[in-house]
Design goal:
Layout (H helix, E strand, L loop, with lengths): L23 H12 L3 H14 L3 H14 L3 H14 L4 H11 L6 H14 L4 H13 L3 H14 L4 H23 L6 H28 L4 H13 L3 H16 L1
Helix pairs in contact: 1-2, 2-3, 3-4, 3-5, 4-5, 5-6, 6-7, 7-8, 7-9, 8-9, 9-10, 10-11, 11-12
């Protein structure tokens, strides 16, 4: 199963600085350039605003967004660091700093620290907990992810992404045992049975999370793929056929 990167990014785009002064025309040019996909022109205007100290917090945020649109994430990270130094209490810029780090493995550790800071200011935000758990998962530190998934699901038991990630953690552990089980020599019955027992336990742990994810987003195929695999491996063939029928219906549409 593919690693989950977070593909629930907390994108914050504060586009279009509104002004009634000498910068109004430049603001309009930047906004129009953004709409037309001319991100370089928009970026140059927002950088000028930053240098002049004109609505610098919003200008930093929009400039970071332009750099992301231009696939210049390293520059976006550098600018987000400058922005956070200038506006350390800005929630908008904190979210931008998180956004540009969660997509780059070299900055996962920084993302973790920023997410913990974000959580300290908003303890009921499911997305923060999910993204933090995703960082740990992507760094192959799944046990550290679990407490944050627990917190996310305590806030919203039906949230798709935390349920799917939690299910994935147990699913992958069970699949590792399934591979070991299938490689056991025919004569090693006890070892085979032990692997099968432990595999089944892990798959059963993953089931409620995948079922919740499927209920939350019934048009999403990934939970159904996992459920089909699990039901086949634990010999629940009727449920396997039920999930397969749903899966095939979705794929046909």
């Amino acid at each position: 199963m593919k690693k989950i990167i977070s593909l629930t990014l907390l994108f914050f785009l504060a586009i279009g600085v509104q002004a009634q002064d000498k910068n109004a025309a430049a603001s309009e040019r930047a906004y129009n350039a953004y709409k037309e996909g001319d991100y370089a022109t928009a970026l140059s205007i927002y950088k000028k605003f930053i240098d002049e100290g004109y609505q610098a917090e919003i200008s930093f945020s929009t400039a970071i967004s332009m750099l992301k649109f231009m696939d210049k994430n390293e520059e976006a990270i550098e600018m987000s660091s400058q922005a956070m130094e200038k506006f350390p209490e800005s929630e908008m810029l904190l979210i931008q700093a998180i956004n540009v780090r969660v997509i780059d493995p070299d900055y996962y550790e920084e993302a973790i620290q920023l997410l913990k800071k974000a959580i300290s200011g908003d303890k009921e935000n499911v997305n923060f907990y999910y993204l933090l758990s995703s960082m740990y998962y992507n760094m192959e530190r799944s046990e550290e992810a679990k407490p944050y998934l627990d917190k996310a699901l305590k806030i919203d038991p039906n949230a798709y992404s935390p349920n799917y990630l939690y299910g994935t953690i147990y699913f992958e552990q069970g699949t590792d045992l399934a591979i070991k089980m299938n490689n056991v020599a025919i004569s090693e019955h006890a070892l085979y049975d032990k692997y099968k027992e432990d595999m089944t336990k892990l798959y059963n742990k993953s089931l409620p999370y995948f079922l919740n994810a499927h209920e939350a987003q019934p048009d999403e195929t990934l939970p159904l793929e996992a459920l089909m695999h699990i039901y086949m491996n634990v010999s629940e063939f009727e449920k396997f056929q039920e999930m397969k029928a749903k899966y095939n219906k979705l794929k046909a549409n």
